[in-house]
Structures are given as C-alpha cells and as structure tokens.
Amino acid sequence: MAAASETIQTIARLTPLAEVLALIDREVKPVAARSVELRLGAGRVLAADVTAPMLPKAPIAILDGWALAADTTLGAGGYSPVLLPAMPQRVEAGQPMPPGADCVVAFDAVRVTGGRAEALDAVNPGDGVLPAGADCDGKTPLRRAGDVLRSLDGAVFAAAGISRVSVREPRIMVLPLREGDVVDAAVGLMGGDIESRGGAAHRADCGCKLATALARDDVDAIVAIGGTGQGRNDTSVQTLTREGRLVAHGMALSPGETAAFGFAGPRPVLLLPGRLDAALSVWLVAGRRMLARLTGGRDHEPGMTATLARKVTSTVGLAAVVPVRRSGDNVEPLATKYLSLSSLAGSDGWTLVPADSEGYPAGSQVLVRPWP
Length: 372
Prior knowledge:
The protein is of the alpha+beta class. 21% of the residues lie in helices and 27% in strands. It has four domains: 2-31 and 171-295, Molybdenum Cofactor Biosythetic Enzyme, Chain A, CATH 3.40.980; 37-55 and 135-167, Molybdopterin biosynthesis moea protein, domain 2; 60-130, Molybdopterin biosynthesis moeA protein, domain 3 (Beta Complex), CATH 2.170.190.11; 304-368, Beta-clip (Beta Barrel). The chain is built from eight helices and 25 strands. It has a six-stranded mixed beta sheet with strand order 13-12-14-18-17-15, with helices on both faces. Strands 16, 19, 21, 22, 23 and 25 form a six-stranded mixed beta sheet that branches. A three-stranded antiparallel beta sheet has the order 1-11-2, with no helix packed on it. Helix 2 runs parallel beside helix 7 (276-295) and helix 4 (181-196) runs parallel beside helix 7.
C-alpha cells in the first residue's frame, strides 16, 4: 500500500493566483521576433512599432474639381459671381495640387463661358485638399509593438506602402493526455483561442506522451490537458517534475484547483485539468497571461461593467470564474465551483471574483468579459 500511495499526485499547497501570475510575468519571456509579409501578419502581435513615411509628401486633391486660390473667390455668391483671374486647372482626387492653388471646388462651383471662369461661391483655403503629412506624419507610429495586427491595419499599411511587418508568433503545442469528447472539446477551444490571440496552435495526437513533448525544441510552450488530479492514471505532474521543472501544482482558482505550471528548459508548460470548465477557467486566467508574455502583447481583457441581479458567493482564498447571463440591464450568475455545460452554453460572459472576497452582493458592479 505504501508503494502505491507514493505514485498518487498530491497537492501540498494551493498557490495563490496572484503568485502564479507574478511568476508568469517574471519568468515567461517573449519569443524571438520575425519579419513576415504583411498578409501573413494578420492576427499576430507586432514586435515593433510600425511607422509609415510622411504621406502625402505634398498637398493633394481629395475630390475631382477645379483647383483654385481661395482668395480669388472672396465675395462670390450665387447672385454675385466673381471673375477668376485665370482659367482654373482641373484636377482629380489624388493628384498633386498645382502651384498657386490651395483649394479644390466641385465643377458646378465654377461657371465657364466663352473662355472666362467665374466662382459662384466663396471658398476657404484647404477645402478639398489633403495637406502634406495628413495621412501619416512620418513620426507617429500607426500601430505599436504589442498591438494585434487587425485586418484594418493590414489595409492601412498596404495603402501606406508597407509590405512587411515584425511579429511574434509563439508556437504552442496543445496536447490531450486523455481520450474522450471532453478533452477533445477543450483542446479545440484552447487552440482556437491561441490562434485568435496571436499564437500558432499545434494540436498533438492523443498518443503523444507528455515526456516526448517536453523534450521537443520546436515549440515555444506546451499546454497539456488531463492527468493533473489524483486518479489512477493521472501522472502529468509527476512527468513534469521528472522531465522539467515544476513550479506550482494546485492553483487557488475555482474551478481549476488541480492545475500545474512549470518549465521544460525555457519553455513554459501549463497543465490543465481534464474537465472542460476547469481547463477553461485556468486557461482564461493563467493561460492567456502566459500567451501574452510569449507574444509580447497586452493582457488587457476587454469587458463591460454590469450590475449583478443577485449575489455571488465565493470561498475566501480562492479566486473564482463565474459565468453570467444578461438579464435586462443586469447580469445574473449561473454557477460557481462546477460550471455545467448548460451554464456555460447559457452564459453571455464571465467575471472573476478575487481571492480576498466572499463574493458580491446583488447590486454590485462587476467586470464581465467575453468567452473565447
């Protein structure tokens, strides 16, 4: 019996979530930057500021019409046209402004008869003109390091003549350590979120052993799902202890208490429980933080402040992920501790109750974040 008990993974201490996150911030470093074609950078995190040359280099017309000097139209009106000193030059949008012209007017704002041109309305200097440097001043970055490259950014960069960008794209192996629909679902969910947040997810076959994955040098991090508890076949924490460096087994996060974190050489390793709700909870709070450090991106989570329609109870010392559903202008909590499939499917987002809180009373303001 003693020999058998020695193989059981036990949790000596639940590491406070703040300690886990501080450790991730301290020890997980950004991956090396690489230059890629602009089209391949979509959805990735920029490794350097992107600054375009000054555009336009000289004033250009932004509409089709007549290029004029504004002071030659002073006093012009529909009933009092002003004779222009010379025939204006016709320009098209995007063309440089001709010398001496500082505005562009629509064709019907000038009447041309018998070789004479009359302004039918007064015009202000700069009307219809894009000044030099108005698109890009050549100094202020269009996007900064740590920003995710959006489709809109790609279009802007292309219009500014930028064809390559520097990005950080960590390669994350997502490894199922058990067979079954639940773990498969978790693998798909984590992989999709990794891709949406600037990483490259590589799903390993279920037959791949954790020890084999830990020895690979062609990935930047490993996320393994299953085997973190005290079950007969739960050995992932023991494997990480033997083949790498275990930093924490047991996180003060509900659900997700059996999760573990460590390193295989310089590569961070996150071991998630084999339950969908627990794996998701740990990924949202710790996994996304790890990914943000690898990409060099920002870990600010978008969300909205909402009012709780009824109270949420939580255990002091445990941070808690709580699914919530919109109810009119408020949100109501759907579950704590164990997050059922129906509560996840019926929720509109989640909120985090901090470890030093017993929960929130009805009427409290909470930050609601979107699910992956």
